[in-house]
Amino acid sequence: MPSTVAGLAIAKQIIRSGTSPSANYRAACLAKSDRDFVNKLKMVEEELDETCHWIEIIMRSGLMQTSRMEPLHRESCELLNIIAKTIVTTKKRLNEEEISKLKKS
User: What pLDDT digit, counting tens, does each position of 46-98 carry?
Assistant: First the structure.
C-alpha cells in the first residue's frame, strides 16, 4: 500500500478486518450452543464482508494493482460464502429441531 493518508487508513482497516475472522471463528468453534455458534459466525461474516469491501476499494481506486489484489479478493469472498452457507445451514437445522419439538408436544 502507498504511504499516503488514504493508503495507510485503508491498510489499517484491512489488517483489522482481515485478521479478526480467524479469532472469531475460533470463538465460534467453542460456542456454548448452536445459537451462540451462529451469533459468533455472524461476526466472522461481517468482518469477511468488510475485508472484501476494502479490497474492492483498493482495486477500484488503483492503490494497488488489481492483479495483486484479485487472488486475495477471491479467497476472502470464498470464505465469506462458506461462512454464510454455514450460518444458513445451522439456522435451518435449528428451525427443523424446533418444529420437531413442537410436533412432539
Answer: 999 999 999 999 999 999 999 999 999 999 999 999 999 999 999 999 999 88
Length of the chain: 105
How far apart CA 20 and CA 48 sit, in angstroms, is: 9
Q: What is the CA radius of gyration of the chain?
A: 18
Three-state SS string over 45-102 comes to HHHHHHHHHHHHHHHHHCCCCHHHHHHHHHHHHHHHHHHHHHHHHHHHHHHHHHHHHH
Establish how many alpha carbons lie within 13 A of residue 26's alpha carbon, considering only the half-sphere containing its beta carbon. Answer: 4
Contact between 51 and 17 (Cβ < 8 Å):
yes
Task: Please name which of 57, 56, 48 lies closest in space to residue 84, comparing C-alpha atoms.
Answer: 48
What is the distance between the alpha carbons of residues 20 and 47, in angstroms, rounded to a whole number? Answer: 7
